[in-house]
Write the structure tokens for this entry.
Amino acid sequence: MVGITRRKFLTTSAMLGLGGAAGCLGRPDPGVIFKGWSYEPNLVQQNIDFFEKQTNIKVNYEAVSGNYHDKMVPLFIGKTPLDCCYVRDDHLAEWVEAGWLRPFDDLPGAGSHKDDLFAYNLDAMSYDGKSYGLPYYTDFLIWVYNENVLRRAGFDKPARTLDELTEQARKIKADRISAPGGNVIEYPLIFAFRQLDIGLNDWWALNYASEVRLFDDQLDPIFPDDVGRRCERVLQWLVDGIHKHHIIAPTSLNMGYRSVLESVASGRQAFALIIKYDLEWVTNRKNSALAEGDLRAKGLAAEQASHAKVLKMAPIPSLEPDQSGTLGWTRMYSLASHVREEKLTQAWELMNFLGGKDASGDYYTARRWFRLKGMGFAFKSLLDDPDIIAQTQQWGDMELIKEQARSVRARENIKAPWFSDFNVYYQPEIQKILLKQQSPRDGLARIAKRCRALKREWS
Amino acid sequence: MIAAFKNKHAPGPDLSPPQSRKDKGDRLFALLINFPTVGLILALVAYPVLVSLWISLHRYNLRRPDVFDFVGLGNYVQILSGAQFWHSLGVTLYFTGLSVFLVIIIAMGIALLFNEKFHGRGVARSLLLIPWAVPGVVNGLMWVGLLSEHGAFNQLLGYGFDLFNRLTGADVDYLGMASPVIALNVTVAAYVWRSVPFACIIFLAALQAIPAEQYRAARVDGANAWNRFRSITLPWLLHPVMVVAIFETMNAFRAFDLIFTLTGGGPGDATNLLAWQTYKEAFARLNFGGANAYSYLITLITMGLAILYIRALYRRGAVQG
């Protein structure tokens, strides 16, 4: 208190206030504001650094931690400054309907990559005939099996049909074949059937493998009376697998995808559905006890081999042997509808770099994501890239990947404005079927009824 | 005590000196300097609460943000006439009732134990606080690990089922966390594990306030341990029990992080608590009108329960205290 006069206090306060105001006025330009979920933010930042170096455009990148959807909703509602962001295909319809995304068909060079994109990716990134996204990555579910376990059970090739799969799994269980850690494989099969915002992807993939069509072109549900009642039969196979044959881990109902992946990497299961790009992860000795055990047994040190093809790809078993298909999805970059006009061109350039080619005409980020993380790409031409083929062969089968890529389908009702309502409703109902709280037919009929009501409500 | 307090403040002739001009000025000044704080509180608390109420009276889904139709109590009627609400309410009441009961019983038991003098009591009291210090999400994840396919608790429960089947000749499938009954009760256990320490601290503080003479007098009168507990300890603990019951009821009714990490509302809708349903309405369906109505229904129910507790326990505590 001593030495501070009223005049001095007022002068200092005024100077502080002016200083603060000047600081606000002179705040440096934040650049293009870009947000995405927090998957490998360091790698994203490295991509952006490369872009900034090439174009001299400044980018303000933020990795949004936690639940991306729930964090982005208030940002959009509050019109928080944002130019460009990640979008999931299952949120596209919702975010466009809410008026949060800007179509880019009017921008220069829009559609330049269209010819090189897989049809289902292109479709996934548009809504009502307008383009909203450029691909961040795309992937699909693949079927993997443990060849070693299969051989020990006396099978020389993986099951092609669900009935054959039951037979193989029952034999593995009966023979009490053990995993690398010494534990007996109690449940040869495991699925990610936990209720999550991404939905029950494994259920979709099993349906698509059996070429189930769930909705017609008007998005009216076809199930439970779809052709050959396949949807019902697939569910019945799952119910029997859990309760009758005890070949599917019941904990599947509480397992998220990462837990399934870790369980598969530890060798506790003989079969599973995993995301294609995770085949790299699950066969890498750094992550997988299965791969490490295999390479050690072969006497190969870390410098000599990083991956072991302990899990092999195969077509997803289906009801009939001639059926094929799987579930795929697209993650994309989009422009926010409240993108600042003065940043629109720069944000568009950023999008084109991240979701397309760099200044030298190379699919820089798509290639880099694949190289570092094995992540799928939406460009057809990259499938024939010698580097990509060589890398894929370390852990996967490029021919099979190409074959499966041809039969990938997005969720049929993903563009319905009521998709998120459906997503909330169908998951508990499917779980109730798997718990035998209702029959597959009754459960599917309930879901179909709800779909029709939602369609009426939103039309 | 309460009677004495009431007598002290009973109406009677006003003997206070007449208010001077200075007193009125002081009061006005006090109001003036409090105004910014009160204004801030109104802006930060009352405004959102009222806006939320206003939204709950409208059809408002963020997927169609231009539609903001006044529907009066329509959202409430729709929720109350649907099976989903009543199912979630049933699950929530079970979860809350069992959780609060267990928290009170276990915390009281531990508090009674920790109120006794024994070697290492200080360390034990400190260790007791650990679950309380664990964030809700971490707690959920910890239980996920314990109950995963190869988790310790899951294995134990599996052995338990196996033993039961062998002893009884029954053929009960062990489904682990895929069993609705196990999932719900494990969720209760996870909640109780984290909530017991707080309740324990409250009870411990109350136990330490009980005059030692009362116990000495009771011993002289020949009262055994049970009678001393029933006639001295329990009446002294009634107010803390009320505080814990209200606090834990409100917390349990709003339990969200545990469901988010542990069960996702499943299996089926076995753990679809009201707070989780509200979250799904708000952030999965973007149905903000309905979600706000759900929130108000939760508020009304917890308020109702709190009033019930106060009426049941406060009066009882006042008579005996």
Q: What stands out?
A: Chain A has 18 helices and twelve strands. Chain A has a mean pLDDT of 91. The radius of gyration of chain A is 25 Å. Chain A touches chain B through 40 residues (CB under 8 Å).
